[in-house]
Each structure stands twice: as structure tokens, then as C-alpha cells.
Design goal:
Helix content: 25-40%
Structural class: alpha+beta
Strand order of the largest sheet: 1-2-3-4-5-7-6
Number of strands: 7
């Protein structure tokens, strides 16, 4: 597996990965989340241009037999929120799940944060979905108490609530780097 910034032509693959990864939400009664469309290509391009997007590919590098880059199996997008790097989206294709790909992407983001002098990673996620908050806890994140939620992170949660995500319990999480 190799982690690197995405090429512009790969951005539609990020949408494909997110759609495939989202299907798991049907298993836990969250069909609306599974049906939610990924970010549009122009927004993905903004993340790519800003250097806040990474992909994990199926091979360590090089080209496949057809001369194409290795397949994108996962990706991560990050924002700056309250001076921290915030995991906006991380998606792993089901065919690559349970192989440490998501954790490797989070570690890549933590490395970027350390290099930039950023103190922490943050994210918001579903509290009770096994591959959400419980997974991130295993990756070193902790749930924030309400009085620990910073102003910009609170604004993220307000946008999520307006999008209807509060139909299911959500939490804010933080990992020091």
C-alpha cells in the first residue's frame, strides 16, 4: 500500500470509494447515510489543490499491467478547524477493509500535523457505529465532553445537524499529535 496525494484524474475514484464504503451503513439501519452522495468533483479538487487530500493505493507504487496507476482503495480529506487538522472524510473500500488502510491514512495525517506544528487531529463521527467512534478510539482519539468542543468544531457539528446527521448520536473526538 502507498499513501500519496491524489492525481486529478483519480478524483472520481474517491467518489466510488465513498459510495462503496457507505453501503455498510445499510447493515446498521442507516440507509440514508448509505444513500448520501459524496462530495462533488470541484470540492474534491479544492482539497487536492490545497494539499489536504491523500489516497491509499493497492500497491507500493509503479503501474499496473495496463500502465495505469494502482487502484485507489481509500482516501482521507482534512480541514483546518480551530488550529487543528480535522478529518473531514475518510473512506475505505470494503475490499480493502480490516487491513490497516484507514489507520495508515490517519497516521499520514498525524505526520502532516506534526510537521506543521499542529497540536491535534479532530473529527466528528457516529457514536455507536462500530467502524466509527469505537474504531477511532482504538486509533488514539478520545471523545470530547461538551465543554471541550471548540467554536469551529461546534460549527462543524451545527452544519452536520442541519444536514440531518443528528438522527443518530454523534460525537466530537480529538487525538493529540
Amino acid at each position: 500500500m502507498r499513501i500519496r496525494p491524489p492525481h486529478p484524474a483519480e478524483l472520481p475514484l474517491l467518489q466510488d470509494v465513498e459510495r462503496a464504503a457507505g453501503e455498510r451503513f445499510r447493515e446498521v439501519g442507516m440507509a440514508e447515510i448509505a444513500a448520501d452522495e459524496p462530495l462533488p468533483l470541484d470540492e474534491l479538487e479544492e482539497y487536492r489543490r490545497a494539499g489536504r487530500a491523500w489516497v491509499a493505493t493497492a500497491e507500493a507504487g509503479g503501474r499496473d499491467v495496463a500502465g495505469s496507476p494502482p487502484a485507489v482503495v481509500a482516501y482521507l480529506l482534512a480541514d483546518r478547524v480551530d488550529g487543528n487538522l480535522h478529518v473531514e472524510q475518510v473512506s475505505v473500500h470494503p475490499a480493502a477493509a480490516r487491513r490497516g488502510v484507514g489507520r495508515a491514512l490517519l497516521e499520514r495525517l498525524a505526520s502532516a500535523a506534526r510537521a506543521a506544528g499542529v497540536p491535534a487531529l479532530t473529527l466528528t463521527t457516529f457514536a455507536d457505529v462500530p467502524w466509527n467512534a469505537p474504531y477511532y478510539e482504538r486509533c488514539g482519539f478520545r471523545r470530547l465532553a461538551d465543554d471541550e468542543i471548540t467554536p469551529e468544531l461546534r460549527a462543524v457539528r451545527e452544519r452536520e445537524a442541519a444536514h440531518g446527521l443528528d438522527r443518530w448520536p454523534r460525537v466530537c473526538m480529538r487525538r493529540e499529535v
